[in-house]
Amino acid sequence: MKKAEGYQSITVPEARLDEFFQVVQWAFVGEWLIEDRQDYIDALPVERARGLEVTDERRGAVGEIAAVHASFGTEMITPGGRRVSAAGLSWLGVHPSHRRRGLMTEMMHDHFRRCLERGEAVSTLYAMEAEIYARFGYGMGAQTVKASIPRGPRMWKVEGADELTVRLERADFDAHDQLVADLQAKLTRPGTILNPVGSGRNARFTDPLGNRKGMEKWRIAIVEDRGEPVAYAFFRRKADSDIGIHDGICQVREHGALTPAASQRLWETLTDFDLVETTYTENLATDDPLLHQLKDARGARSKVIDNLWVRLLDVPTALQSREYFHDCDVTVGLTDKHVPDNAGTWRIVVRDGEATVTRAEGAVADLTMDVRHLSTVYLGGTSVESLAAAGQVLEHTPGQARELAVAMMSPVAPLANWDF
Ligand SMILES: CC(=O)SCCNC(=O)CCNC(=O)[C@H](O)C(C)(C)COP(=O)(O)OP(=O)(O)OC[C@H]1O[C@@H](n2cnc3c(N)ncnc32)[C@H](O)[C@@H]1OP(=O)(O)O
User: Which residues cross the membrane (predicted)?
Assistant: First the structure.
């Protein structure tokens, strides 16, 4: 049998969500608590839940769901603070008894086709394993610093930080969703994923008991400037002690700040709870203001890992939906195995920050690359020239990798602060 033969793509109806979740638990290795069911439903973009159902008994029980995925419909901030219509792919899993039969490949094609029909020019995701997605044209578009910060770090003072006030509350969808969405919409960092439309909107507020590992429920810190919210962070703490000495921890998940003072006030709060010795943070951009405010940045023990993976689906629309920081005129020969409409030669002309991207069939390409390389550099966190130096992008006209690199590099490092 050919790969993925004996299965059909379906939209998973609400009545079959438990089957959807069964596949997820098998794929992601875990047994959920029955009392967490509603949290998982709340976190799922239900109307975009898709599955592959067995149609041939040689593959398994006919009618059984063998693989699933879903995606959030959203917008992503691009360099220069612009926006592009994007999908956030998530919940992708294949039941272990159906793996390596091409089901993921089938689902990726289903996802790409439906995104393009909806006008989503870019697909994004967080990868469970880093090796999987490049073959489908995704590139590591943003990286994140994971840091553990000892209590009360010394900081370079930022004027105005002391005048700001902080509210600490239990995170609650009704009380805080609009506030977070409004702040999120004011962030200009490329890679920022805005609140999704439709169901799944409250994903960031769900708090399954099975994931809590002895920690308190998610809290939210809101920094205000005369009553106006200027920063927020989701956090939770856990008291602990070692040989009778308090050794609690604080975990910070999503956060965002609109000003340097707001950032400082936020982190002073998050790193100075009584009985908490270490604050862990998951989503710091590689140039997050905190890293420049800490007097001893090395003291915040850190590692850098991949954050958002990005896949251009509609190359001209995506490239024209961001700002550029230098003029250029570069011809790119592009390969794209999974969305063949993107393949061919493109001319990228930038004038005054705006790109015009047109087909240039027959022209000699200055650079050749795969769509995963263009996707890697899209948010401006990696330079085309470094990919050329690594032998991944081929330069046929000397200097053109630098020309495109300077145009595309972002002055601000990209990051998605919401882990969907
Ligand atoms: C966005 C997210 O949701 S991230 C979460 C992804 N899900 C998981 O990690 C859950 C556990 N894993 C799974 O459910 C499955 O094993 C999946 C989804 C990773 C792969 O599904 P499969 O149906 O087995 O993949 P499929 O048969 O289509 O393989 C496609 C290709 O990817 C490769 N591949 C699949 N899994 C992996 C892996 N873990 N590491 C490296 N390569 C992989 C295959 O070898 C194949 O390569 P080829 O095209 O060169 O032949």
Answer: none
| 313 CB within 6 A, ligand 1 | no
Task: Give the model confidence (pLDDT) of 250-291 as tens digits.
Answer: 999 999 999 999 999 999 999 999 999 999 998 999 999 999
The question of whether 420 is a catalytic residue gets the answer yes
Do 292 and 333 have their domain in common? Answer: no
Q: Find the angle CA(373)-CA(378)-CA(382) to the nearest 5 degrees.
A: 70
Distance (Å) from CA 140 to ligand 1 centroid: 17
Residue position matching structure tokens 């899209």 = 378
- Residue 132 Cα, ligand 1 centroid: separation in angstroms? 6
Is residue 320 domain-resident? yes
Which residue of the set 20, 133, 136, 378 is catalytic? 133
Give distance in angstroms: CA of 338 to centre of ligand 1: 15
User: In this structure, is residue 70 part of a structural domain?
Assistant: yes
Residues 6+ apart with CB under 8 A from 132: 104
Kindly provide the ipTM of the predicted complex, given to two decimals: 0.96
Last residue of a domain, one of 85, 119, 141: 141
Q: Is 77 exposed, middle or buried (0-12, 13-18, 19+ CB in 10 A)?
A: buried
The predicted model scores a pTM of: 0.96
Ligand 1 close to Cβ of residue 284 (< 6 A): no
Q: Are strands 367-370 and 394-395 parallel, antiparallel or unpaired?
A: antiparallel
Same domain, 161 and 280: yes
Q: What is the mean pLDDT of residues 323-329?
A: 98
pLDDT digits (tens, 9 = 90+) for 191-238: 999 988 888 878 889 999 999 999 999 999 999 999 999 999 999 999
- Given 100, 123, 141, the domain boundary residue is 141
The larger pLDDT score, comparing residue 3 to residue 403, is at 403
